[in-house]
Amino acid sequence: MFDYIKRMFMRENTLRSASLVLVGATALSNVLGVIRDHFLASNIPTDRLDVYYAAFRLPDFVFYILIAGAISAAVIPVLSQVVKKDETEAKKLVSNVFTIGICALIIALGLLYLLMPNLMPLLAKDFNPEKLNEAVRLARIMLLSPLFFGISYYYTSVLNTHRRFTAPALAPVVYNLSIIIATMLWSGRIGVMAPVLGVIFGAFLHWVIQIPAVNNLGYWPKPMINFRDPNLKRIFKLMVPRSLAMGAGQLQVLAFTSFASALPGAIAIYSLADNIQTVPLAIIGNSLATALFPNLAHFGKSDRKNYSELLVKGIRTIIFFAVPAAAMLIIVRAQVIRLILGYGYFDWNDTRMALEALGYFALGIVAQCLVPILARAFYAVENTSYPMMSTLITTAVGIIAGWYGMQWWGLNGLAIAFTLSSWTNAIILWCGIKYKVGVNLNGGLPMLIMKVMIMTLLTAVMMELVKIAIGNIINIDRVVNLFIQTVVTTGVGAAGYLGLAWLWRIPEIRK
Question: How far apart (Å, rounded) are the C-alpha atoms in residues 292 and 305?
Answer without folding.
Answer: 15
